């Protein structure tokens, strides 16, 4: 055991040392590999690549992001002071903090679990295992959209275990194993719906900067919602086509899933209303005409301001015992999600630097990949984006890969005559599906780390994740080219 720990530490420090050398010195000693790329561009590329390696391999998020910001400030592109200002002086950071406060409050209060158990205990699903499976996944996705997806994954697994216990079945049954993986898939899909509370915020903002205009969030929302629903239907269809035994669920008493009261208390109700009201008001700028009062509020406050007002009001209000409706310290203390904050803080300025004129990457990528894409059909363009982004995000950090690919695929797709907005959504979605390896995403790391307790194998995780990814490729190859023409 001692030798194993020693070897693990040696590997850790070797990766750290190599990555830090690349981060601070790689761009100085490695010459540009193309005439269009500058030495400054090589420095920024080395910083970004080293951060992706560190995010994906040694389990570090905060310290690689901090050092990455410092390294950026040591290049000719900017100064350390300006790099820090660019990192923490973003409204995005504030927005994520406010949104995560509400999401954490919902998760900690038990409101998410209560709603899920209530919905799953309805008589309409009695004796209908496939309907039960679909509704179960759908509800987890919807609550993940306004809550913490990792928390909903844990909740989903707890409900699966509860179902197994009620039916006196073992978790090693094939149905429970595949549903355990599909819970991760559906919660990841749910996390994409509102890209204002996780690392997706970094990609969304970088996407908007590259497009040079405010993005139509409602179109994005419709696309990811449809894809998510199709995913859940595909999961249920797979259970049927694979002839996975669900006969033991025919006599399940769904009401046993409802524990105690199924009514939200005043505090839980306030959290849900605050989250839903924030989302509705924030989206009003995309829904209503500019003369509408909600649209004016949305445009004036922005999404960050709307969530800020909601949090402030909840802290201001008191319950019947005179306590704040939302206790900030209690809500944020257990897990302040600093990983999300620091990824966003480091990724946005580095991504902007990577596509700046001083690096030369945009010119080089367009000249190299432009001819390939320009001679390709729209279908091939989307297939290339889906396959490249999904494969890469399964061997590296989804945040890092997504932020690295956006500045590559958008100018190339534009040169090829494809719809940049749809291509960007395709890239963002594909970068979220790091499900097959532990380094692909936090959700993947969670299931790989819990596989023994869940009684799933690596083969189960990779196999059922591959089923979803193949389905995504097939559906994406049909849907994205259509959206390219109509949006």
Walk me through the structure.
With 487 residues, this protein is mainly alpha-helical. It is 74% helix and 0% strand. It has 22 helices and no strands. It has helices at residues 2-29, 39-57, 62-73, 80-88, 91-109, 111-120, 129-146, 149-166, 174-193, 200-211, 217-241, 266-287, 293-316, 328-332, 338-354, 361-374, 378-393, 398-415, 420-431, 442-449, 451-454, 458-486. Helix 1 (2-29) runs antiparallel to helix 2, helix 5 (91-109) runs antiparallel to helix 15 (338-354) and helix 12 (266-287) packs antiparallel against helix 13. The longest helix is centred in the last third of the chain and has 29 residues, at 458-486. The mean pLDDT is 81.
> Structural class given helices, strands, pairing?
mainly alpha
Order of helices and strands: HHHHHHHHHHHHHHHHHHHHHH
Shape: globular
DSSP, total strands: 0
Provide the β-strand percentage band.
Answer: under 5%
Low-confidence stretches: none
Q: Radius of gyration, rounded?
A: 23 Å
How many H/I helices? 22
Helix content: over 70%
For the report, how would you describe the main beta sheet?
none
- N/C terminus separation: 58 Å
**Average pLDDT reading:** 81
